[in-house]
Each structure stands twice: as C-alpha cells, then as structure tokens.
Design brief:
By secondary structure, the chain is α/β, with parallel strands linked by helices. It has 8 helices and 13 strands.
C-alpha cells in the first residue's frame, strides 16, 4: 500500500492573505510545497491530502489540480473550529485554530493508509521523503511511529534566532521528548539558547523536529481521545493549542515508540523575509546538481 502525504496548509491564509500571493522560489515560480510534492511522488507516495481552510479551497484547487492531474491522487480536508469538538462549548471570542494535531485529525475521513505529515512552507529534501516512505511501507505500526530528525546546525538562520523542537533520545536512540526551545542562534562555534531554560548551550549534533512525522492510521482514534481530554482541560483558554508533539509525548509515555529517522537532507524555510534569497539560491544549487529539473511540472 502506498503511503499518503498530509500537508498542513490551513495556516497559510493568515500569512499570505490569499493563495495567489504565495511566493514562488523555483525558476518556474514553484513554491516550496511544489518541491515537497515532487519529492513525495518520486519516493512512492500515492496520495496528497491538503489540510486547508474551507474559504481557501477554490484558490487552492485552481493552483494545484492542473499540475498534479494524472501524477498523484489529491484529497482535501478542512480544519474547522467545530470539528471533533463533540458539543464542547467553544468560547465565543476564540479565533485561533486548535493547533497542528487537531489539523491532522481533520484528515481522518480521507486517510486510510500509513501517512506522513509536513508543513506546507518548509523544504525537507528528497532523502527525507525516501526515508519516510521506506519507514511507512515497512516499519510503521500502531505501536511504532517516527519523526524525521534534522541536524540543528542545518536549520539555523543567518538573519536572526529560530525556535526548534529539540529531540531528547532514550537509550535506544528513539524519541524520548521534544522540548520547544526559542531564541536559538549560532555564535561562533557555539549554539546558544536565550529562553530561560537549561541547557543554555546545545550540542552541535543536536537533532531537531521540523514537523515531519510518520504515523499509522491508529493515530486518528488516539488523537481524538486526547483532543477530548485537551478540550476539557484547556478548551476555555483563547490561545491554547493542541500540537502534534503533545500527542507524541503521551504516546511514548503509554509505551509507544517514535523512531528518529536520520536524513542527509538539509532543511530550509523562510523564517525571515531575508531568508528568501537563500532559499532561491539553495534551490538553484540543487537544480544545478541535477537533483531537480528546472521546471518541476512540464
């Protein structure tokens, strides 16, 4: 069974205002998402599921369906505030979506096979998709999930501090914890963190999460249960969010395993507008090496 790729794109409207304003970085105006989809197709994924806002659907279909037709199956899921709240009385003033784990839960009806989850506007690299597909086809189960672990050094920005999910490992090298660390920057040969937590310096070989996860379909029932508990505890808070690492952390505590899949790929994204030229330069270098064609969708 071919795995599915779930792309978290519901938050893009707030960043771009409209799909038509999404920034093109490739020579043919390709978005970062185009490169992820291209990598997924050649790595053996059989379906793409876009998680988007409902009022975004027409723009989204107009942009992506013509170029993906005949190349891979496409489905849509909508992150609605009311989804899976099971009658919970949502605060009238709440505007913020419920977070990434809730977004994935909204894809429950269209995902029936092992699946990966990525952010829409992060570049993950071909090797990461190949490794994820291999895990999903051969090793994924209801007791065994995975995360693609990136070298922290390969995810820093020259234009300011970054926030990263730092992976703590157990004695077998699997994921034990993810700790969100903020204000991370490289100073000389050191990686320093200014967030009031310990340690204040991170090792150069630290692994971090860039939100590239691999799950069995059992994730949905498990997450639905945890979301119910989350609403009871935090649902009245206007800015509370139900993130994927919350689910992964509880899964591990209850005896599940989350493998860390190493990758040789470099991650890049646009944390600051000044990062955009670096993204374009990086893509052009990969194209020059022959890793991608000059035009992805001929």
């Amino acid at each position: 069974m071919q795995p599915t790729l779930v792309i978290l794109a519901a938050g893009m409207a707030s960043r771009y205002g409209s799909m038509k304003q999404i920034q093109g970085f490739g020579p043919g105006g390709e978005t970062i998402m185009d490169y992820s989809i291209y990598d997924a197709i050649r790595s053996g994924f059989g379906k793409i599921v876009f998680i988007i806002r409902r009022d975004f659907a027409e723009d989204f279909r107009n942009i992506f369906e013509p170029k993906l037709e005949g190349k891979i199956a496409v489905e849509y899921a909508f992150q609605d505030m009311e989804a899976f709240t099971e009658g919970f009385d949502i605060p009238a003033d709440r505007k913020k979506p419920w977070g990434t784990a809730h977004a994935v839960l909204c894809a429950k009806e269209v995902v029936n096979e092992p699946f990966a989850v990525i952010n829409a506007d992060d570049f993950y690299g071909h090797n990461a998709f190949e490794s994820a597909a291999d895990f999903l086809i051969h090793d994924c189960s209801e007791k065994n999930y995975a995360i693609v672990g990136y070298d922290l050094l390969k995810t820093l920005s020259d234009h300011g501090t970054v926030n990263r999910g730092v992976c703590g490992l157990d004695e077998s090298g699997n994921l034990a914890t993810i700790t969100e660390r903020i204000n991370i920057a490289k100073k000389g040969s050191h990686i320093l963190v200014d967030d009031g937590l310990e340690p204040k310096e991170l090792a150069l070989d630290t692994r971090v999460s860039m939100n590239f996860w691999c799950f069995d379909t059992s994730f949905f029932a498990y997450t639905q249960k945890l979301f119910r508990e989350f609403l009871q505890q935090f649902g009245t808070e206007l800015k509370s969010e139900f993130f994927i690492p919350i689910v992964a952390d509880q899964f591990i505590k209850e005896g599940g395993r989350v493998e860390i899949i190493p990758t040789t790929s470099s991650w890049f994204g646009v944390t600051y507008k000044e990062d955009a030229p670096f993204v374009e330069k990086s893509l052009n270098e990969l194209i020059a090496k022959g890793e991608y064609p000059e035009r992805l969708w001929k």
